[in-house]
Amino acid sequence: MALFRSPASPLPPSLRLRRLLNTSRSKLSLRSPTAMASSSSSSSEHNEPLSSSAKLFHVPALNAHEMEQIADKTVDRYSRSYDAKRRGRGTAIVWFRNDLRLLDNEVLFQAWSSSELVLPVYCLDPRHFATTRYFGFPKTGALRAQFLIECLEDLKKNLVKRGLDLLIRRGKPEEILPSIAKTFGAHTVYAQKETCSEELGVERRVCKGLHLVALSSVSTSNELSGMDSSIDAKPQHASGISFKMGPRLNLIWGSTMYHIDDLPFSTDHLPDVYTQFRKSAESKCRIRDCVKVPKYLGPAPSTNDWGCVPTLKQLGLSLDQVKLGMRFSGGESAALSRVHEYFWKKDLLSTYKKTRNGMVGADYSTKFSPWLASGCLSPRLLCEEVKRYEMERVANDSTYWVLFELIWRDYFRFLSIKYGNSIFHLGGPRKVNSNWSQDKKLFDCWKDGRTGYPLIDANMKELSTTGFMSNRGRQIVCSFLVRDMGLDWRMGAEWFETCLLDYDPCSNYGNWTYGAGVGNDPREDRYFSIPKQAKTYDPEGEYVAFWLPQLQVLPKDKRHFPGRSYIQQIVPLKFGNIPRQDGTQIILSDRRGKSRR
């Protein structure tokens, strides 16, 4: 069934009044120069001075008990209400990667249906905590590491509720998984299929390691020889089955709204223009229904050492508590609670398209992106919730636009297959030759929010403080780094990789190649004018004053270009109105004919 834009339905008086009173802004940033972003804010958040108590926004704004209740109700809706037939035998391993959820998880369902015992495993790969390839930034910063810890804690809790547990081991998957498969006599390791080179390399090495495992014939009453001493396991070969061949790796697609097998073209022939892809997918593809997993998934194999979710200290990281901006809670329970909060409790979905370019608060956009990136939230479940909202409340451009942004997310993932490692290369998919600078002092000013341009500095401080930045902000800081500073776009992309809660390589590098003008679509080569963006999206300087409190004493019309009241501008702007340090402005003509916003 094709997606389409539903005609805007008249709003009931109560909702009309709420819309008039609610000047909040909201956005799902799948498409910004990185991954997907989202958020929203109430009228008191957006129009009145922010008190100290309003400076921290919890996402979702619910306590643990409320989140657990909402998650349980959502599980009831999206789980099998009857006993599914379980025809498999033996033990299957679920290798959790970027799919840290139970709902709409085909990997988990296939493992359950093909076995009598399911063993969920998560590998803390030390390479994820190493450094980036070109500029040596941490691959996973402390903010995203803390978010991951919370995701694992929630996953473990939810698995225990359903009769399983989560075996956590620190090390390389290609070393851990074959050892565990041998110990427990597993016949298959199920995992979600990934698309980028590092993840594909791990898949190949895991497959090779599993091929080297020769499982001996063992009955239920016998003990395995050569067990991994770190896993005090009690082997359970159900029904006395023996597996004389080594275990196999079964990779399952599950990260997109549109399934890769349902596309009307191969990824080699993927259109280079998003609009062409979207129109073709919407008209020719049907979004599959969510996979409904049984409520009870046990039993699990027995072991006395399931391992523990690590602390930040054990990962070699430290983090000050987030006290300003948005504080996201990790895990599937929090993700489902945010969907409930944004769609059903606050009724913000109906105005999403109008508010999505906001910058202050938690509700100007959906803020689903961190949970989508970690796999705590399924894009197909989001699609079904949008359709349910359209049936029960209203269908309009805003409800469609959430799906529109999810299609962007799909598109970047499919592009990563078509173009491979070129999305990480300086010239991008089009192999563009440009004379980029790698001036470290200039970059550090951008990274630390010391450029002299409040709109840039505020966005960069929000990123380093919270791990999040609005869709609009990502486009602006990307344009400034590339166009105005002339720096290598990969420096920005790798810094975003360090900081973002919602980092995933496909969306991050796909968006940065677009923003740098080296992406697959040559028309996506835009310059974002800081004066114009400031006037349009932060006209009273509320956002910059929130993150740069020294600007709060200035008149609102002086906050974006405060002259000598702020630090010196490190570079002049290429185009547009350029205020001098004394606050006056000069106008430069557009010497290059680029699309300006």
Kindly list the characteristics that best describe this protein:
597 residues; alpha/beta; five-stranded parallel β-sheet; two-stranded antiparallel sheet; 20 helices; 38% helix; globular; disordered N terminus; disordered C terminus
In short:
The protein has 597 residues and is of the alpha/beta class.
Mean pLDDT score, rounded?
86
The strand count comes to 17
Strand order of the largest sheet: 7-6-5-8-10
Percent helix range: 25-40%
Q: List the quaternary state of the chains.
A: single chain
Topology of this structure?
Elements: H1 13-21, E1 27-28, E2 38-39, H2 43-47, E3 56-59, H3 64-78, E4 79-80, E5 91-96, H4 106-113, E6 117-124, H5 142-161, E7 167-170, H6 173-184, E8 186-192, H7 197-211, E9 233-234, E10 248-252, H8 274-284, E11 293-294, E12 302-303, E13 325-328, H9 332-345, H10 352-355, H11 369-374, H12 379-392, H13 397-419, H14 440-448, H15 454-466, H16 471-484, H17 489-499, H18 505-516, E14 526-527, H19 530-537, H20 542-547, E15 576-579, E16 585-588, E17 595-596
Parallel strand pairs: 3-13, 4-11, 5-6, 5-8, 6-7, 8-10, 14-17
Antiparallel strand pairs: 1-2, 9-12, 15-16
Q: Could you walk me through the main structural features you see in this protein, from its secondary elements to its overall organization?
A:
By secondary structure, this protein is α/β, with parallel strands linked by helices. About 40% of the residues lie in helices and about 10% in strands. The protein has helices at about 15-20, 45, 65-80, 105-115, 140-160, 175-185, 195-210, 275-285, 330-345, 350-355, 370-375, 380-390, 395-420, 440-450, 455-465, 470-485, 490-500, 505-515, 530-535, 540-545; strands at about 25-30, 40, 55-60, 80, 90-95, 115-125, 165-170, 185-190, 235, 250, 295, 300-305, 325-330, 525, 575-580, 585-590, 595. The strands form seven sheets. It has a five-stranded parallel sheet with strand order 7-6-5-8-10, with helices on both faces. Helix 5 (about 140-160) links the parallel strand 6 (about 115-125) and strand 7. Helix 15 (about 455-465) crosses helix 16.
